[in-house]
Design goal:
9-stranded antiparallel beta sheet, 11 strands
Amino acid sequence: MQKHAEGGEDGLFKIMPSGCVDAITVYCDQSTGVGGWMLVQQRMDETVNFNQSWDKYKRGFGRLDDEGRGNIWLGNDVLHLLTAKETSLRIELEDWSGNRTYAEYIVNVGSESENYTLNITSYTGNAGDALISGLFMDTVYTSHANMKFSTFDRDNDNWEENCAQFYGGGWWYNNCQAANLNGIYYHGGPYDPRDNVPYEIENGVIWDPFKGIDYSLKVVKMKIRPITSV
């Protein structure tokens, strides 16, 4: 964003966030709005397993090609460093009929010592607010605001069991969820024969206000952008 303040082509860039030892490669979206969006999460197919350990989510996994295609979690350590100052989070969602929607927030992700707590405010967009509001009539149990990150080997949620073990991906679970972009990737929404089993336990790639908790989305993306110049 510093070097391409007037926009430019989308693509892979090398960045060196303050606090990082080595440069990292990220994909930047320079064409949405005024540009400057950095892709930190993406699901496009089932080729990358998102049911990963605490250490894998800490360091990041997956990869993208030059056109930004692929599946990725950039890493919680980097996400913490990149959101140290006031940061916009943009979530883009697409269902299996090609309908697209988005949600934007102001966000900060805590450090590992804080279990990467999700500090999030100020929803705008047309996807509906799943992260702050939670499920209708169940806000206190399913809001993701101020929740710690959990994985199958690190349980930080508010449920008596482990949400990450049950739903199959690392996330900011409460008791348990109104959204989960790191759940199991299913084909065709609620059920497709290629998935082999009926989709019944709401463990897909979900955003409840958009398609409900029993519909697994086709494409999801999480992007961040600093609100103020650095």
